[in-house]
């Protein structure tokens, strides 16, 4: 992929993106997005997808994987008939909305209609949109089945099926819904599967639905975004909320995503921060869709500096400019650490990841260190009363 063109020439002609096989409207959108060169997953996956191959992409969020499948799909759709030719399945409403908005961004110069359908909001507007005819449907499995049952959408002309964050879809128990949906789409299609991890269940899914797929893997299996600096704060459980408030007051933290293990935990942290005069919002499955949307908008616009979320709620959030991720609770699965950290240090921006580790969480932190392949430095806060500090 070595090129002798200067950067100016390269940008003018679409440069590296054109070399991957992308043209016209897609290159215009890439230029508008300000992308200078493809990310590794884009470099590998785009030419294969353009050639019509089934691809299994092993890549976490933050690697540019959405553009890796969206750009070649748009290239394929441009100039074709207005039929529903693409279905993208995602695990959560947030990711669904996120993928839809990426699609719109990359299809800005192409006359394509895209609909996102997800639960927690009324069916009618989605029904209207689907019945009006769309090229692309981005959907969560449960809500899509509601629409299929009402025959609001048919997939007789489907050409491309994307299973995004397949591991998370299976974790969330969507296997029966996926089976049902896929059994109703044409067998002669291109299938793309993206997953941050490749447990046996995902491999089985790929064997079932993909035809001689090419596996595209970016970096090490669970490599956390490498622009991130990691730190562990050993702290007794009952001092965590005080430590959080202390850090938020003393450090220059512009945009902070805090993870708790439970929904109650998230609410408790928000209440504590508000008592300390730090505005914060919670994001978890018990919040209604309008509440989630508002929390996200307030966070994105900078009105609230701190968003407290559970793991399920965080997948698919594309919020640029997060300066700090704080693991208030150590994630129960090491892979979730990688996903959480994927929220900061996205693409080329820098970020810090702090993990609050109480004594009962030491073993889990060690497991995480093995998975990410690095030891995380332990640090302390001068002047903060840690009570009895956890020994490690
Ligand atoms: P994703 O992994 O799809 O969630 O994308 C992560 C972020 O990277 C998104 O905010 C994209 O806008 C951004 N991105 C995708 N491709 C590129 C690229 N080639 N250059 C710079 N940023 C990109």
Task: Describe the protein.
- There is one protein chain.
- With 392 residues, the protein is α/β, with parallel strands linked by helices.
- It folds into two domains: 216 residues, Rossmann fold (3-Layer(aba) Sandwich); 145 residues, P-loop containing nucleotide triphosphate hydrolases (Rossmann fold), CATH 3.40.50.300.
- Strands 3-4-2-5-6-1-7 form a seven-stranded parallel sheet, sandwiched between helices. It has a six-stranded parallel sheet with strand order 8-13-12-9-11-10, sandwiched between helices.
- The longest helix is centred in the first third of the chain and has 14 residues.
- The site of adenosine monophosphate has 15 residues, from helix 5.
Give a nutshell description of this structure.
This protein has helices at 7-12, 15-19, 24-33, 40-50, 65-77, 93-106, 123-131, 141-149, 166-171, 175-183, 200-209, 240-250, 263-275, 289-301, 311-314, 334-341, 362-372, and strands at residues 55-58, 86-89, 114-117, 136-139, 160-163, 190-195, 214-217, 228-234, 256-259, 280-283, 306-309, 324-327, 351-357. The chain has 392 residues and is α/β, with parallel strands linked by helices.
- Going by CATH, the architecture of the largest domain would be 3-Layer(aba) Sandwich
| Tally of DSSP helical segments | 17
Distance between the termini: 46 Å
Q: Percent of residues in helical segments? A: 40-55%
Mean pLDDT figure: 86
Q: Strand tally, please?
A: 13
Instruction: Examine the coordinates and then state which fold CATH places here, giving the name of the CATH topology of the largest domain.
Output: Rossmann fold
Small molecules held by this entry: adenosine monophosphate
Amount of beta strand: 15-25%
Largest sheet strand order: 3-4-2-5-6-1-7
Outline the biggest β-sheet: 7 strands, parallel
CATH superfamily of the largest domain: P-loop containing nucleotide triphosphate hydrolases
State the domain count. 2
CATH class of the largest domain: Alpha Beta
Order of helices and strands: HHHHEHEHEHEHEHHEHEEHEHEHEHEHEH
Shape: globular
Structural class: alpha/beta
Low-confidence stretches: 1-12, 220-224
- CA-based gyration radius: 22 Å
């Amino acid at each position: 992929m070595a090129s002798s063109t200067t950067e100016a020439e390269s940008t003018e002609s679409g440069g590296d993106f054109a070399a991957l096989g992308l043209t016209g409207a897609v290159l215009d959108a890439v230029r508008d997005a300000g992308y200078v060169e493809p990310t590794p997953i884009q470099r590998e996956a785009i030419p294969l997808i353009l050639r019509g191959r089934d691809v299994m992409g092993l890549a976490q969020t933050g690697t540019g994987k959405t553009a890796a499948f969206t750009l070649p799909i748009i290239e394929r759709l441009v100039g074709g008939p207005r039929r529903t030719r693409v279905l993208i399945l995602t695990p959560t409403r947030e990711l669904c909305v996120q993928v839809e908005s990426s699609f719109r961004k990359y299809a800005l110069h192409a006359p394509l209609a895209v609909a996102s359908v997800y639960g927690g909001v009324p069916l009618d507007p989605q029904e209207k949109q689907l019945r009006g005819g769309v090229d692309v449907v981005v959907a969560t499995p449960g809500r899509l089945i509601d629409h299929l049952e009402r025959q609001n959408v048919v997939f007789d002309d489907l050409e491309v099926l994307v299973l995004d964050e397949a591991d998370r879809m299976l974790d969330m128990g969507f296997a029966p819904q996926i089976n049902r949906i896929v059994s109703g789409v044409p067998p002669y299609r291109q299938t793309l599967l993206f997953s941050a991890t490749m447990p046996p269940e995902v491999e089985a899914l790929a064997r079932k639905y993909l035809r001689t797929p090419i596996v595209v893997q970016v970096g090490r299996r669970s490599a956390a975004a490498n622009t991130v600096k990691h730190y562990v704060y050993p702290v007794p459980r009952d001092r965590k909320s005080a430590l959080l408030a202390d850090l938020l007051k003393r450090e220059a933290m512009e945009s902070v995503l805090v993870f708790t293990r439970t929904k109650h935990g998230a609410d408790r942290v928000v209440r504590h921060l508000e008592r300390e005069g730090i505005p914060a919002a919670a994001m978890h499955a018990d919040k209604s869709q309008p509440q989630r949307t508002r929390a996200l908008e307030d966070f994105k616009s900078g009105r609230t500096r701190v968003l407290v979320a559970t793991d399920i709620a965080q997948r698919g959030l594309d919020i640029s400019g997060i300066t700090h991720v704080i693991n208030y609770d150590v994630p129960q699965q090491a892979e979730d650490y990688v996903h959480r950290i994927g929220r900061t240090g996205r693409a080329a921006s820098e970020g810090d990841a702090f993990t609050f580790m109480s004594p009962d969480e030491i073993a889990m932190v060690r497991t995480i260190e093995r998975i990410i392949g690095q030891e995380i430095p332990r640090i302390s806060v001068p002047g903060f009363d840690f009570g009895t500090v956890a020994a490690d």
